[in-house]
Amino acid sequence: MKTEANRMKTFETSWSDNFPVTATSLAKAGFYFIGPQDRVICAFCEGTIYNWISGDDPIQEHMRLFPSCSF
Asked: Which Gene3D superfamilies does the UniProt record give (predicted)?
């Protein structure tokens, strides 16, 4: 899951266009999809985030919640 392309593949069948953040922005921020619903995990620090809301920036949330992440 260290490559963005591999992370992107995890979103292909289960990520909803109704979620307030895009699969592309999550994969770029180091996350891949694990479910249920909108739960994602970082491929580098294993931090998980879910319950995304409109206006969330995955990169900013990643840095805020997991400041020690090597990503």
From this structure: Inhibitor Of Apoptosis Protein (2mihbC-IAP-1), Chain A
Which CATH number covers residue 13?
1.10.1170.10
What pTM did the predictor assign?
0.95
Q: Within a domain: residue 20?
A: yes
Backbone dihedral region of 46: left (phi > 0), alpha (psi from -120 to 50 degrees) or beta?
left
The two structure tokens encoding residue 25: 């922005």
What 3-state DSSP class applies to 4?
helix
Q: What is the pLDDT of residues 1-38, one digit of tens each?
A: 999 999 999 999 999 989 999 999 999 999 999 999 99
